[in-house]
């Protein structure tokens, strides 16, 4: 594709904000074919500006989704084995409540999930997560996103000062507390320590980096003070005016930035099928 055509493709894109909190629809892009550099640039800029982007009505093979994911950086290919054994491409993980022969075909199967940011229990959490919807329940199973920049920026100065330089322990208990927070670190549970306020490596902006599902405690303060502070920060980041909710339709592609957002899932009926394909973009150590 020549430069003039490339620029034509990029000029046809519309970026339509979804709420005052965050989020934008990218309209006018078909992801079945590779996208040119100018289009990539527009989409990447929209992702930086809006934190969560959505492209509706897509018909993607696993390889199409992986190719689009790779325009944002190298993908994680170490997803847990049991969660992607039904996907052919090793970068793809299935998120699903579907059981075949009594076995789950994907990860994070059932119901509501508290607000979290992906892989904050790891040393280098993924920078972005992309879900592509194949089957969705008629009601519920929405994904809610909250803006971590706004959450930080609207904290009282006294709290910002209290949080300056503080670090927090994040853990994720795949077996016992995968949807609701645990309060003690059990042996063998994967965990990591990160700044409570992190700086986004591309925008330079500060974002609140704690979440209700995986942040267990703030280090170097009394346990009760840590718990009180965390509960206040969880409530703050989840404020309604910082949140936008995605109600899924098959064919939706949503990409979110884990460095400056948290997300949650609303409940849905166990009798309904939900099937998403997920890829995650490798990230950096939070600072
Ligand atoms: C996730 O937290 O990565 C899954 C979100 C969802 O299933 O909506």
Structure at a glance:
With 287 residues, the chain is of the alpha+beta class.
CATH superfamily of the largest domain: Clavaminate synthase-like
* SSE class: alpha+beta
Helix content: 10-25%
Gyration radius from CA atoms, angstroms: 19 Å
Give the total of domains.
2
The total count of helices amounts to 7
| CATH class category label of the largest domain | Alpha Beta
**Which small-molecule ligands are present, each listed once?**
succinic acid
Percent of sequence in beta strands: 25-35%
CATH topology heading of the largest domain: Double-stranded beta-helix
Envelope shape? globular
Report low-confidence residues grouped into runs of 5 or more. none
Could you state the oligomeric state of the chains shown?
single chain
Could you give the distance between the termini? 39 Å
Mean pLDDT: 93
The biggest sheet, with number of strands, parallel, antiparallel or mixed sense and barrel status, is:
7 strands, mixed
H-E order: HEEHEHHEEEEEEHHEEEEEHEEEE
Key descriptive features of the protein:
287 residues; alpha+beta; Double-stranded beta-helix; 2 domains; 7-stranded mixed beta sheet; 4-stranded antiparallel beta sheet; 7 helices; 18 strands; 27% strand; binds succinic acid
């Amino acid at each position: 594709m020549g430069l003039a055509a490339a620029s034509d493709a990029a000029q046809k894109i519309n970026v339509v904000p979804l709420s005052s909190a965050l989020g934008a629809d990218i309209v006018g892009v078909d992801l079945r074919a590779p996208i040119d550099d100018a289009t990539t640039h527009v989409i990447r800029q929209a992702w930086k500006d809006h934190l969560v982007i959505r492209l509706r009505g897509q018909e993607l093979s696993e390889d199409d989704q992986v190719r689009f994911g790779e325009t944002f950086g190298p993908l994680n290919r170490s997803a847990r084995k049991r969660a992607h054994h039904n996907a052919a491409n090793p970068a793809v993980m299935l998120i699903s409540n579907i059981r075949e022969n009594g076995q789950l075909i994907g990860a994070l199967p059932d119901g509501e999930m508290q607000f979290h940011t992906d892989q904050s229990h790891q040393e280098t959490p993924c920078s972005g997560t992309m879900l592509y919807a194949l089957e969705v329940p008629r009601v519920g199973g929405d994904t809610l996103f909250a803006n971590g920049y706004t959450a930080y920026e609207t904290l009282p100065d006294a709290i910002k000062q209290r949080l300056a330089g503080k670090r927090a322990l994040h853990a994720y208990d795949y077996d016992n507390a995968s949807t609701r927070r645990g309060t003690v670190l059990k042996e063998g549970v994967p965990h990591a320590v990160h700044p409570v306020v992190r700086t986004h490596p591309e925008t330079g902006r500060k974002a609140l980096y704690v979440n209700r599902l995986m942040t267990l405690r703030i280090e170097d303060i009394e346990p009760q003070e840590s718990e009180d502070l965390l509960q206040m920060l969880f409530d703050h980041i989840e404020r309604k005016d910082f949140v936008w909710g995605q109600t899924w339709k098959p064919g939706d592609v949503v990409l979110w930035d884990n460095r400056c957002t948290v997300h949650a899932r609303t409940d849905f009926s166990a009798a309904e099928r939900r099937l998403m394909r997920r890829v995650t973009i490798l990230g950096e150590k939070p600072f």
